[in-house]
Amino acid sequence: NFLGWLVFFRAHLRKQNRAHEVLDKPVPKPPADANGNPIPMNQAQRTAFQNELKDYMEKDDIAFSDLMKACIRSPKAKVIAETGGFENAYPLLERLRSRFCKNDEISKAAHLANYHSLRMNKTENGSEFLDKLAIAEVALKSAGEELSDTAKLSKLIASTQGNKAYADLARSIYSTPGM
Fold this sequence. Notes:
It is built from eight helices and no strands. By secondary structure, it is mainly α. Helix 2 (43-71) crosses helix 4, helix 5 (102-117) packs antiparallel against helix 6 (126-142) and helix 7 (149-159) runs antiparallel to helix 8. It starts with a helix and ends with a helix. The mean pLDDT is 83.
């Protein structure tokens, strides 16, 4: 799973001068107007931009070389890395995301369908049902989907319509701060 690999790759880069920061932003460009013409900068702005660019490039050198090494292990990723003409880590990682994240979207959709299909059985008690919901919620979080408190509350209330005690428990759990 690509997102799982990416978590470990970020952790690997974090210990090397915090190089993981360049994976989420492109190379800094000088400010430009709507037509693409450069906006003049004063000396302080130019120095700040040059320092930002230098810092980015130092981190990118680390991230890009490690990303290229990581791509060697997968034949498909290796072809993308070799033929793409990439000069920085950010565009290479974006291309890898577009190629390998498709299964993650399917997985996220499956987790969402599973979460919304959960119902409380007549034989299980409230804590067992809350455990099932918590497991499904953790699976959704790992897939990158955050659930709002409103969605959780409505799920608990809808699933416990047959038992008023559990519906009241759901309301009290999600309406009390810090629970």
